[in-house]
Amino acid sequence: MGEVGQIMNLRIPQYAFSLPFFMFDIYNYQLITTYTIPGDIKDDKDILLTEIPIPGLNYQPIQYSGGGNRKISFTLPLIKRNNTIGNSVLLKQFDVLRNQATGVFDIYAKQFQPNPKVLFYWGTGSVPLIYYVKKVNFSNKQGWINQMGQPQYSEVEIELWLDENDNWLYKAEEMYRKVSSIAGEVITAVDAIPMKGRRF
């Protein structure tokens, strides 16, 4: 066991900072960041299986049909207490994600222009990846409207769909997934071996 500890340093360093929540709007070139962080981050990806009925059998053979899209969803609180604009400018950063992209200098969107994609990885355990923005909904909390009628506390419900097309970021994720799964096998095997004085 001591030899394993000499080969691999499994101690996690303590950092003096925490990376804030952020995502990057690729089409409008804006960095979206907040000092608040999401609640639970849900990470879904369906496995598509099809049951094939065969006459006379007591079961149905199962055929793999493919994989679904990876979908990330979470709720982000936005709080800005003041008696002027409240958190409205923070909300507008997310508001542009559910409208057609205009770029940096244009104000009005062109016909058939899609809404932005974002670069995101915070809390997902993946490398930064490109996502379609599927949902951005606001819930402005009662009792948190200031004297000017502006919200001060809102919850932003966000759903992102991974762009798994042939791009170099997704290829990097596939490599990271493979390497990390091998590293995870080693780490979990080491953790499973009883060791005197070990603290988890």
Number of domains: 1
Helix content: 10-25%
Major sheet description: 7 strands, antiparallel
Q: Indicate the overall shape.
A: extended
> What CATH first level would be assigned?
Mainly Beta
Rounded to the nearest angstrom, the distance between the terminal CA atoms is 16 Å
What does this entry look like structurally?
This protein has 200 residues and is of the alpha+beta class. The mean pLDDT is 88. The longest helix has 25 residues. It has one domain: Elongation Factor Tu (Ef-tu), domain 3 (Beta Barrel). The strands form two sheets. A seven-stranded antiparallel β-sheet has the order 2-1-7-8-9-6-3. The chain has a two-stranded antiparallel ribbon with strand order 4-5.
Brief rundown of the structure:
This protein has helices spanning 2-7, 88-95, 168-192, and strands spanning 21-25, 30-34, 42-44, 47-51, 62-67, 71-79, 117-120, 129-140, 153-162. It is an alpha+beta fold. The protein is extended, with a radius of gyration of 23 Å.
Keywords:
200 residues; alpha+beta; Elongation Factor Tu (Ef-tu), domain 3; 7-stranded antiparallel β-sheet; extended
Question: Topology of this protein?
Answer:
Blueprint: H1 2-7, E1 21-25, E2 30-34, E3 42-44, E4 47-51, E5 62-67, E6 71-79, H2 88-95, E7 117-120, E8 129-140, E9 153-162, H3 168-192
Antiparallel strand pairs: 1-2, 1-7, 3-6, 4-5, 6-9, 7-8, 8-9
